[in-house]
Amino acid sequence: MNKVLYKYILGPDDLTILSLPKGARIVHCGYQKKYAHSPDPFYNLCFWASVDTTKPLVERKFYIVATGEEYSETLLYVGTIVIDNGTVWHIMEEVL
Question: Does residue 68 surpass a pLDDT of 80?
Fold first, then answer.
């Protein structure tokens, strides 16, 4: 079994639902210059995950939370993205 690092782009809304291979492990959160819709007007919010492409896809829910914003206790912290302009976003995943 070989693993691969894949980039996933978070959508323009607070909630993004993505299909990742079962057991995918997020290894980094960051941003890139904007090439698609993003909650930040100039950047795409992304994360990179180590995945086993032979595993079946499972749906996972990710939320973008601003500093000081309340969030549900069903959300687990994934990472923080600090943009060059000083904007800070926190990525959370719903874990039920």
Answer: yes
Return all residues near 70 (Cβ < 8 A) that are at least 6 apart: none
Domain that holds residue 32: 4-94
> By three-state DSSP, how is residue 59 classified?
strand
Q: What is the pLDDT of residue 38?
A: 56
End-to-end CA distance of the chain: 29
Tokens of 94: 């719903």
Domain tally for the chain?
Answer: 1
Rounded-to-integer distance, Cα 93 and Cα 83, Å: 20
